[in-house]
Each structure stands twice: as structure tokens, then as C-alpha cells.
Design goal:
Strand content of chain A: under 5%
Number of strands of chain A: 0
CATH topology of one domain in chain A: MetI-like fold
CATH superfamily of chain B: MetI-like
Keywords (chain A): Cell membrane, Membrane, Transmembrane, Transmembrane helix, Transport
Order of helices and strands of chain A: HHHHHHHHHHHHH
Radius of gyration of chain A: 24 Å
Structural class of chain A: mainly alpha
Number of helices of chain A: 13
Family (chain A): Belongs to the binding-protein-dependent transport system permease family. OppBC subfamily.
CATH superfamily of one domain in chain A: MetI-like
Number of helices of chain B: 11
Distance between the termini of chain B: 19 Å
CATH topology of chain B: MetI-like fold
Largest interface: A-C, 65 and 69 residues
Oligomer: heterotrimer
Shape of chain A: flat
Helix content of chain B: over 70%
Radius of gyration of chain B: 23 Å
Number of domains of chain B: 1
CATH architecture of one domain in chain A: Orthogonal Bundle
Protein name (chain A): Oligopeptide ABC transporter periplasmic protein
Number of strands of chain B: 0
InterPro entries (chain A): BPD_transp_1_N, MetI-like, MetI-like_sf
Membrane topology (chain A): Multi-pass membrane protein
CATH architecture of chain B: Orthogonal Bundle
Helix content of chain A: over 70%
CATH class of chain B: Mainly Alpha
Largest sheet of chain B: none
Strand content of chain B: under 5%
Order of helices and strands of chain B: HHHHHHHHHHH
Largest sheet of chain A: none
Chains: A mainly alpha (about 300), B mainly alpha (about 300), C alpha+beta (about 550)
Shape of chain B: flat
Chain lengths: ~300, ~300, ~550
């Protein structure tokens, strides 16, 4: 296990390098510069700005400079938020996104896993359809619809929660609920499907035949087997913490990393976009590693 | 062991035809699935012939009929939008794009995602590592820039839009299928098939994919609405459908901004999207039950 | 059957959830909850559109940054409650007869937020910094009237040669190349504000951070969390501190106007940046007194790429397209925000300048459309040979509406085949600037100061902002002349000629003028709408209902 982890971590370095290189090319090839604005600057001013950020150098030199900085864990200055660095922005935005995403995922697991199992046990009965309807309702109402409705209900018509911004822990409640709606739908449906499979497999029949208690059959035999696909899903889901909450961060006015990324991309803030991409890549790889490790732990037969 | 597997395989080949019929019979017995097929058929029919059934078209504007609530009296049964266009025709026309997006998504994520994930998980080792790191890279790549560059170099077209949608819609599927394949390939029946000398492709097609069916169906049906909504983001980047043409994603997106004034602009396209999604799901569940290998 | 029933129940739930958003006509919640601390600390909470990219006055651009900087800094001159230029750090000034030399007499009681006096040397430092190549200020060109400013920015001269000198600690001399009637206006712009030299020298570009912030305005930066909020507190050394009523200002960047309205209604904002157009009706109905529609200094227009066919050397076609648009429909039915229709090029409120308008402004629709068709045919187009162009616009919902409405009008009146075409903002900018494939584009221009020159100068063939690529020698001559004439009837006459030329040649088609919308709670006193849309918090007060008092 340890050897495997180390191997995977070492493998992450070339992956991130390729990711960074491809992203660098993409970002710099896109039309528009960080300094193009509706009010066009005089050419000499623009030249000064480009010189200030080394954008006047040949692209391979910029790339070399960037790699060198990255090696020192320095993502460089942000072009868009000129008074601050990409490191600071990530350090500021990530905890916010992580809080929203982490709690949303937790809430979704707490709701989705038992409800999914329940739906599977009561397959094609009213409970099953009700659960499915809730899940599908959650997924067919995108967050940009749920969020304004929740705000209207809990903040405008009733004075229960703040309508936006981050002032206290209450500010996180609505964003977490909104994001959890989508996660719950996925987890519930996946859990239902995999429980149905497991319920029909031989070892459950055997366990039942042995006369084990229902609680034990569900807790020890069914749950670990049925939850495996959900664990697979957690990889993409954890990554979606960053991408999936952009809309939510925008509507609730949260200073999360997703909003930084989109604003950075729209403003061609090269360093901010590359910094977040790299950070994101790191998280995707890390989560997938964790998922694989959990997999191995839940199902010891699995080899890679 | 080996013999029995061979026997099973032969039986399967012989029974192939009747198996399909069997599945059909089982599907026909599933009322929710049948009802869903009927409703989905109706939606598809409406989307295709709907625009011809009304005197309105999807682009004509009527500045004296802005934001009219749905009513039979004015001939705008779904109401009108902020420039006085008939929402009924727009919903129908938009459905053509969105259903196509849904079909492409399903197709790509089923074909590429399942094949890729199952292969990686089945082969394992270095190749698995390489294939999954590739997915990681594609996953983390700033997709927005890719789309922008596509528009800049190749211009705006529906083909490119489908290409962009196809490019992202299979990644999650590949990851999940790969994860499940890791477990399934340890199952005794896979071991047996392997020992019987079945080729890797045969094992994936005959043993692994059928056992993943439930999961695949669920995942595809959940991805479709996401991608239908995602399409409106491509429009923002200049790649998706262009006004005055529209799609459900675009209609819902625009509807949100105006929901306080004209809720029907959000509610009606949302209902169409939701109904379609419900149908896909129940059909998916029905198909899964009908094709379940454990029930044979 | 039961299954079907469940599906329909689920659908009803969906509809019900969505539907509850529409109950607004019956009820329009609007909480009145001023932020006054137990110790009487008054906080003004303002929506601020986007996040400022920087709070360095020399590097800032855009309205959100300007709003914060107005509160933090004070220039030689500043804005009054009504947006007029009034004495700031300079209590008075003398102008030489040729209009080229300004002597500013600085107040002795002007203080930085650390108590140090604001001196003439600080202004020398700051203005040199504003034009220096190393600063790379996007607004460096606004200082071009000052001697050597342009040469310094382009690196040809040293910043020390700038025509700004300190005669003594409280007397500042600024020399101009030529008479510039709107020069004082440019001094009120944030890029002319003084920065505290020791802080800049010590902290470099980090001097704007709350820990290092020193400013000379009514407020000083307390905290800044990017994309969440900027908090300013009272500068107790400010010369007019005793008349400043509000103790803290919180700026929240909220891009989506619907989200902003929700926050306003929930009582968490006192002063909004904008108002969503689809809600204007409801706002007018329920809280008309809190709605402020203020005509602004901005124009939205369609530009032609006049360097390429079909619009090159084709004024008839351009006029036909301009005449075919029903601007009244656009402002009344589509925008609905009380915007003035654009029948002229320069916005209405320009200090006594009355705009030239199209001769056909008040023609009946039929006559106008017939004339448009006539010109269209004369330009060589017809039903069988229609004009085919793309109408480029930057992606956004409101822009999309305008594009589809205009293309429908052109189709109806002329039979022209205009296809709306959206691009992401930066892609749009580069497409427009390249002058290669754009033929028709939607754009806007917001004036930097209250003088017609802020609009006229962009169509000069030498201007970097001349997006249509219009090159008209007569216009260049008129515009440059007007830049250096003393204000008066003569200058107005020249500017009238220039504007009339635009309306005759139509390198751009004016559509409508900007109206800024703000929602302001009734307890916020002292607000006066002004065309520059400049509202210094120090002029405002928070007085809950039932308490006596008004604006200072």
C-alpha cells in the first residue's frame, strides 16, 4: 500500500507537468490579453504593462520563467488583481470552496446513501419512486435555479439566513444545500443501482441463509459492497467541489476558488488560471489516489 | 469449471435471439418504463412537428405582446418572452437541439467512457495508470480556453459544439466504470472465463459491461440533463446555438433572470427538461432490469 | 397507474417550487434595517458590481475601483454632491491668461490618515508616478495635456521633466502644452489622486493592502477580502471629518443584479450598484421612492468597420441602417429603464452643451422607414440582393436582446440579413480591434469626465479607441481645435460641427444613453443623482425613520 502510494505520488509529477504545459499553451494562445479593455490603452502604455509582467518576452522564455517560479511554489502575481499574488488568492479562496463542497458532499452522503439503499430494498414500490422523484427533481433543477429560489424563500420572504456574502457560518447554509442537491441525486441513484445488484448476488443470499440478523447483513455485507460505486463517484464529485460550485459562488457572492478561476479566465489572468489549474490538477490526482486506496480497503481483492 | 463456462458461452450464443426477446418481454411488463417511452415519444413528436402546428415562428417579435402570460386567447399557449416571441415554438425548436445534445452525450459517454474505463480497469497496471492520468489531465485542463480556441480557429458551428460536449461527457463515466471493473474482474466468473481462454475484449463485453449496466444507465441518465444545461455555457463562449435559435438550456438560463416577472419562461422549459429526464431514468431502470444478467 | 400518479405529483412539486418565485406581485418584501452599532457607529453597505482590480489610484480602471477610491482619496479638486468639480486639497487656483499654467494653493489642514500633512511634493511624486512607464497606468494618457506627460509615458523623457513643480509645500504649479478647457476635470479623476510617497517607496505594489494603507480622503482602508468585501473606516485626520456622518463603508462586489436586489430586499444592502431590468416594473410599483434613475455619461451604439466593404465609403448604407432602427421601441419596450433614445452622439448632460440631433428625429415612423429603404436601395441593396452581415456583440443577456431586436428591425424595414453573433468579451475586443472581419458591432462608451471631448476624441483617427477605424480629416481638424479652445460659444459651435459630421457620416449609430439605476433605502439621506454617477459617502448620512436630520 505504501509503495503504491509513493509510486502514484511520483507519477503525479509528470502528469502535472504535462497538464501545466498544455494549459500554458492553451491560455496563451487564446485571443485577448490580460490588459485588453473596453477603453483601449495607448500602445506605449500597453507596452509598459507587458514589459512589467514580462509578456513582451518570447513565449518559451515566459514558460521557462514560469516553471522556475513554480519550482519554488510561487504562482506569480495575479494580472487581474494587481495588488495580490496567486498564492494569496488560492489561500483565500480554497478554504471557502472546500467548506461549501465538503459539507455539501457530507450532507449528500448522509442523505443519499441510506435513501438509495431504502429505494433499492423497496424496489418498484412507492418509497422507491418517491426517492427517485426527489433525486431527479434535484438534478433537473440546476443550481442557478435552486439558488435564487432558496434566497427568495430563506432570506427575502423570511429573515432566516443571509442572502449572500460571507459574514458568519450562516452564510454557508444555503450554498451547501444548493450544491448538495446535485450530489444527493447522484449518490442516491448510484447507491440504489448498486444495492440492487448486491442484493441479488450470491453472498448476500448465503449470508441471509446463514440466519444473520438483518442489521448485520446490511451493515457488514451489503453496505461495503454497494458503496463501492459511490466511492468511485467521489473522485469526480470532489473535483466538482471546485468546478461545480462556480455558479453557486457567483449567486451567493462567496469568495471561492471557482469564482476566481472563472473571473481569471474571462480576464485572461494567465497566472491565476494556470495556478488554479495546477492546484486543481493536484487535487484531482490526490482525490483519485484516496479513492483508489479506499477501494482497496473496502474490497481487499482489488489489485491495480 | 472451464467446461461449464464454455458451455455457458455456447448456450448464450444459441439463446442470443430469445434472450433479446426475453428482455423485450420483461421491459414491456414494466409499466413505468412503458409509460415513459410513450411520454418521451410524445415529447419527441411535439418537438418535431410542434413548430408546424402554430402560426407563430421562433424568431418573430411582437413588441405589443411582451411578457404575455400563457393563455389560449392570444394564441400564445406558453406565453411570450421579453421581446414578444412565442414560447411554445421556442420550446419546441429548442428541444430539437437539446434532445440531440442528450443523445450525443449518451452515445459518447456510453461508447468512449465505458470502453475506456473498462479497458483501463481490466488491463490494470501501467496501462491503467497511463490511461487514468490522461483522464486526470483532460479533467483539469482549462476547458474554457479550449472552447474559445476552437471558436477562434474553426468558427462557430453545431458540429464543433457536439465535439466539445463529447470531449467532456465521457470522463466521469470512464472513471466510474474503471473503478467498478477493478472489483468485477476479481469475481469468480471472470476468473473462469479467463481460464477458459476468453479474450480480453470478450470478457469485457460479455462479463464486465453487463454487470455494470445498472450503474452505467444511472450515470448516463444523470449526465444528460447536466450536459443539456452545460450547452448554454458553450453559447456564452460563442460555440453553442446562436440567437434567434435556442435550446432548453438557453431558455432556462434566460428564464432564471426573468423569473420574478415572467415565471413561465423558466417553468415551462424546466418542465420539458424534467419530464424528459424522468422518462430517461425510468426507461433506463426498465432496461437495466430487463437486461440484468443475474436474473437470467 | 400509481407510478404515473407519483410522477405527476413530483412534477407538481417542481412546478410549485419554481412557481413560488412569482408571488412578488402580491408581496414585495423590503426590510428596513440600517446598520447602526450599539455605540452609534453608522455603516453604509453598498453594492459595487465587480471586484476592483487594484486600489492603486494610478493603476485602477473601471467604476467599482473608482467608487472606492473616491471615498479613500482626495485630489487637488474633488466632486461635489452633484458631481461638479470643486476645490479639494487645493483650496484655490490661478490660471494664466493663455490657459497653460495653473498655480494651486493647497489647504494647510489637508492630512494623510497617519496625521502627516498633504504637500505639493506629494502631488509631484504622485503625478510623476502616474505617467511613469514603470507604473504602466492604463489612464496615463488622461494626463497628456501636462507638459512632457506623453513623452515620459513612452519612455522618451525622464519622469522628473513632467510639468508639475512644487513651489513650496503648499503651492503647486502645473504647466500644460496648450489650453485645455477640461483640465480640472481630469484632475478629479482617480488617476490624479495623491498617494503617500513613503508607503509606495516602502511597500511597492503592496501599499494598497489594509496593513499599509495611507490615504488622504474621508475614509481609509480597513480590510479587503477579494470577491467578498472591502471595508473602509473614517479617516479621523480628514479635514472635514466633523461633517462626515457615516463611520464605515462596506463595498460588496455583486455582479448579478438579481442577487444584488435580493440582498437589498433582505436588508443587507443600503445602496445598490444597479437594478435588474426585468424587476423595474415591480420596483416602481412597490418602492418607487427608493428607485433612482439617473441619466449618465454613457452611450451605447452600433459601430461599423468603415475600413472594409460593405461599410467602407458607404454613408448611405450606414444612414439607412441607422434610420431603420426604432429607438423608441428599444428604450420603451426592451430596456424599460427610462433611457433617453440616442438621436445624437453626445449625452445630454454636458455642462451647457446642447447636442445636435438627427434631422429625422421626430419624423413619423412611416416616413422614416421609407427614407431608410430609399437610402438602402440607393446604396445598391434590395430584396433580391440583401445586405448580409454579422452583428457582433459581447456575450450577455441584455446585449443579446439588443442584437436580436435590431436584426429583426433591419429585416423588417430593409429586408437586410443581419445575423447576431456573440463572442466572449476578450475575444470580442480583439476581433473589434483587429478591424479584419468585423463589419458591424455593438459597443458602449462611458465618459471619463464631463466634457463633450470625452466622446468626440475617440473618433479622432489617431485615437486608439476609434473602433470603426473612421478617418475623416475634417473631423480630426474640428475635434483637435475644440480641445484647445476656451469654453464658450465658439468652442460649442466647433463641437456642434463635429457632432453633426458624425451624424451625417454615421461611423457609429447611436442607440441610447446610459441611465444608472440605484436602489437606496429611505434612511440614507443626502443622495443627489449626478451624471458622472459619483457619490462620495461623506455627503451621505444614515438617519432611521423617526429621527431628526438630513444630509450634512
Amino acid at each position: 500500500m505504501l509503495a503504491y502510494t509513493i509510486k502514484r505520488l511520483l507519477g503525479a509529477i509528470p502528469t502535472l507537468f504535462i497538464l501545466l504545459t498544455l494549459s500554458f499553451i492553451l491560455v496563451h494562445a487564446a485571443p485577448g490579453s490580460p490588459f485588453s479593455m473596453a477603453r483601449e490603452m495607448p500602445p506605449e502604455v500597453k507596452a509598459n504593462l507587458e514589459a512589467k509582467y514580462h509578456l513582451d518576452e518570447p513565449i518559451y522564455e515566459q514558460y521557462g520563467r514560469y516553471l522556475l517560479n513554480i519550482a519554488h511554489f510561487d504562482f506569480g502575481p495575479s494580472y487581474q488583481y494587481k495588488d495580490t499574488t496567486v498564492n494569496d488568492l488560492i489561500a483565500e479562496g480554497f478554504p471557502v470552496s472546500l467548506t461549501i463542497g465538503g459539507f455539501a458532499l457530507l450532507l449528500a452522503l448522509v442523505l443519499g446513501v441510506p435513501l438509495g439503499m431504502l429505494a433499492a430494498v423497496r424496489q418498484n414500490r412507492i418509497t422507491d419512486y418517491l426517492c427517485s422523484a426527489i433525486a431527479l427533481g434535484g438534478i433537473s433543477m440546476p443550481s442557478f435555479v435552486i439558488a435564487p429560489l432558496l434566497i427568495l424563500w430563506a432570506a427575502v420572504y423570511n429573515d432566516w439566513l443571509p442572502a449572500g456574502g460571507v459574514d458568519s457560518w450562516q452564510s454557508y447554509i444555503l450554498p451547501v444545500i444548493t450544491l448538495a442537491a446535485m450530489f444527493t441525486a447522484y449518490i442516491l441513484r448510484i447507491m440504489r443501482a448498486s444495492t440492487i445488484e448486491v442484493l441479488r448476488s450470491n453472498f448476500v443470499r448465503t449470508a441471509r441463509a446463514k440466519g444473520l440478523s438483518t442489521a448485520r447483513v446490511y451493515g457488514v455485507h451489503i453496505l461495503p459492497a454497494a458503496i463501492l460505486p459511490v466511492v468511485s463517484y467521489l473522485g469526480p464529485a470532489a473535483a466538482a467541489i471546485l468546478t461545480g460550485s462556480v455558479v453557486i459562488e457567483e449567486i451567493f457572492g462567496m469568495p471561492g476558488i471557482g469564482r476566481f478561476f472563472v473571473n481569471g479566465a474571462l480576464n485572461r489572468d494567465y497566472t491565476l488560471v494556470l495556478g488554479i489549474t495546477l492546484f486543481y490538477g493536484l487535487i484531482v490526482i490526490a482525490f483519485n489516489l484516496v479513492v483508489d486506496l479506499i477501494y482497496g480497503w473496502l474490497d481487499p481483492r482489488v489489485t491495480y | 469449471m472451464a467446461k461449464s463456462t464454455q458451455q455457458e458461452a455456447m448456450e448464450k450464443a444459441v439463446k442470443g435471439n430469445s434472450l433479446g426477446r426475453d428482455a423485450m418481454r420483461r421491459l414491456a411488463a414494466n409499466k413505468a418504463a412503458i409509460a415513459s417511452i410513450a411520454v418521451l415519444g410524445l415529447v419527441v413528436l411535439m418537438v418535431i412537428v410542434g413548430p408546424w402546428l402554430t402560426p407563430n415562428n421562433y424568431y418573430s417579435q411582437d413588441y405589443d405582446a411582451i411578457w404575455q402570460a400563457p393563455t389560449l386567447a392570444h394564441g400564445h399557449i406558453f406565453g411570450t418572452d421579453s421581446v414578444g416571441r412565442d414560447l411554445f415554438v421556442r420550446t419546441m425548436v429548442g428541444g430539437r437541439i437539446s434532445l440531440m445534445v442528450g443523445i450525443v452525450t449518451a452515445f459518447v459517454s456510453l461508447l468512449i467512457g465505458v470502453a475506456y474505463g473498462a479497458t483501463a480497469g481490466f488491463i490494470g497496471g501501467r496501462i491503467d495508470g497511463f490511461m487514468m492520468r490522461t483522464v486526470d489531465i483532460l479533467y483539469a485542463l482549462p476547458f474554457m480556453f479550449l472552447v474559445i480556441l476552437m471558436v477562434v480557429f474553426f468558427g462557430q458551428s453545431l458540429f464543433l459544439m457536439f465535439l466539445a460536449i463529447g470531449a467532456v461527457s465521457w470522463l466521469d463515466m470512464a472513471r466510474i466504470v474503471r473503478g467498478q471493473t477493478l472489483t468485477i474482474k476479481q469475481q469468480p466468473y471472470v476468473e473462469a472465463a479467463r481460464m477458459a481462454g476468453a479474450s480480453g475484449t470478450a470478457i469485457i463485453v460479455r462479463h464486465i459491461v453487463p454487470n455494470l449496466l445498472g450503474l452505467i444507465v444511472v450515470y448516463v441518465t444523470l449526465t444528460i440533463p447536466q450536459v443539456i444545461l452545460f450547452e448554454s455555457f458553450l453559447s456564452f463562449l460563442g460555440l453553442g446555438v446562436q440567437e434567434p435559435m435556442t435550446s432548453w438550456g438557453a431558455l432556462i438560463n434566460d428564464g432564471v433572470g426573468e423569473m420574478g416577472r415572467a415565471p413561465w419562461l423558466l417553468v415551462i422549459p424546466s418542465i420539458f427538461l424534467a419530464v424528459t429526464l424522468f422518462c430517461f431514468n425510468f426507461i433506463g431502470d426498465g432496461l437495466r432490469d430487463a437486461l440484468d444478467p443475474n436474473d437470467r | 397507474m400509481r407510478r404515473l400518479r407519483i410522477i405527476s405529483v413530483a412534477l407538481l412539486v417542481c412546478i410549485g417550487l419554481v412557481g413560488c418565485g412569482s408571488g412578488e406581485d402580491h408581496k414585495f418584501p423590503n426590510r428596513i434595517s440600517p446598520d447602526i452599532g450599539p455605540d452609534g457607529t453608522k455603516t453604509l453597505r453598498k453594492g459595487n458590481g465587480a471586484e476592483p482590480q487594484t486600489l492603486d489610484p494610478a493603476q485602477a480602471s473601471g467604476v467599482p475601483a473608482a467608487n472606492v477610491l473616491y471615498d479613500m482619496y482626495e485630489g487637488l479638486v474633488t466632486y461635489s454632491r452633484t458631481g461638479d468639480v470643486i476645490p479639494g486639497v487645493a483650496k484655490s487656483w490661478d490660471v494664466s491668461d493663455d490657459g497653460k499654467t495653473y498655480i494651486f494653493h493647497l489647504r494647510h489642514d489637508a492630512r494623510w490618515s497617519n496625521g502627516k500633512p498633504v504637500t505639493a511634493q506629494d502631488f509631484v511624486f504622485s503625478l510623476r508616478r502616474a505617467v511613469a512607464p514603470a507604473t504602466a497606468s492604463p489612464y496615463a494618457d488622461i494626463h497628456s495635456p501636462i507638459v512632457n506627460a506623453s513623452a515620459i509615458t513612452s519612455g522618451k523623457k525622464d519622469p522628473s521633466t513632467l510639468g508639475v513643480t512644487a513651489i513650496d509645500a503648499h503651492t503647486l504649479k502645473i504647466q500644460l502644452h496648450d489650453r485645455t478647457p477640461f483640465f480640472l476635470q481630469t484632475l478629479a479623476h482617480p488617476s490624479s489622486y495623491p498617494v503617500y510617497p513613503p508607503a509606495v517607496k516602502q511597500w511597492g505594489n503592496q501599499f494598497t493592502q489594509p496593513a499599509h494603507a495611507v490615504s488622504d480622503g474621508a475614509y481609509v482602508l480597513k480590510s479587503w477580502q477579494v470577491n467578498n468585501k472591502i471595508v473602509l473606516t473614517r479617516n479621523r485626520y480628514y479635514r472635514d471629518n466633523k461633517d462626515t456622518k457615516i463611520d464605515r463603508v462596506v463595498y460588496s462586489p455583486i455582479g448579478d443584479s438579481n442577487s444584488e436586489l435580493s440582498r437589498y430586499q433582505s436588508g443587507a444592502l443600503d445602496f445598490t450598484y444597479s437594478a435588474p431590468s426585468s424587476k423595474l416594473e415591480a420596483i416602481h410599483k412597490h418602492i418607487p421612492k427608493q428607485m433612482h434613475a439617473v441619466p449618465g455619461l454613457g452611450l451605447y451604439y452600433f459601430g461599423f468597420n468603415v475600413t472594409r466593404p460593405p461599410f467602407k465609403d458607404n454613408p448611405k448604407l450606414r444612414m439607412a441602417l441607422s434610420m431603420a432602427l426604432d429607438r423608441r421601441i428599444i428604450v420603451q419596450k426592451i430596456l424599460r429603464g427610462g433611457q433617453p433614445p440616442g438621436f445624437s452622439y453626445i449625452p445630454g448632460d454636458m455642462h451647457g452643451y446642447d447636442s445636435v440631433t438627427y434631422p429625422w428625429t421626430n419624423w413619423p415612423d412611416k416616413k422614416r422607414e421609407a427614407m431608410a429603404r430609399k437610402l438602402y436601395h440607393e446604396a445598391g441593396y434590395s430584396k433580391d440582393h440583401p445586405l448580409k452581415v454579422k452583428l457582433l456583440y459581447p456575450s450577455s443577456e441584455s446585449n443579446k436582446q439588443i442584437a436580436i431586436v435590431a436584426s429583426a428591425m433591419w429585416r423588417r424595414v430593409l429586408g437586410a440579413d443581419v445575423i447576431p453573433w456573440n463572442q466572449e468579451w476578450k475575444v470580442y475586443l480583439s476581433t473589434v480591434h483587429r478591424h479584419i472581419d468585423t463589419t458591424l458591432f455593438f459597443a458602449g462608451w462611458i465618459g471619463d469626465y464631463q466634457d463633450p471631448n470625452t466622446f468626440l476624441s475617440i473618433l479622432n483617427s489617431h485615437s486608439g479607441n476609434n473602433e470603426p477605424g473612421w478617418d475623416n480629416a475634417e473631423y480630426d481638424r474640428l475635434q483637435s481645435a475644440s480641445e484647445h479652445m476656451p469654453n464658450g460659444p465658439q468652442r460649442t459651435a466647433v463641437m456642434h460641427k463635429a457632432e453633426a459630421l458624425i451624424l451625417k457620416q454615421n461611423p457609429v449609430v447611436p442607440l441610447w444613453f446610459v441611465t444608472n439605476h440605484h436602489l437606496i433605502k429611505p434612511y440614507v439621506k443626502g443622495f443627489v443623482g449626478n451624471p458622472l454617477d459619483v457619490y462620495l459617502t461623506r455627503y451621505l448620512n444614515i438617519v432611521p425613520a423617526g429621527q431628526k436630520g438630513g444630509g450634512s
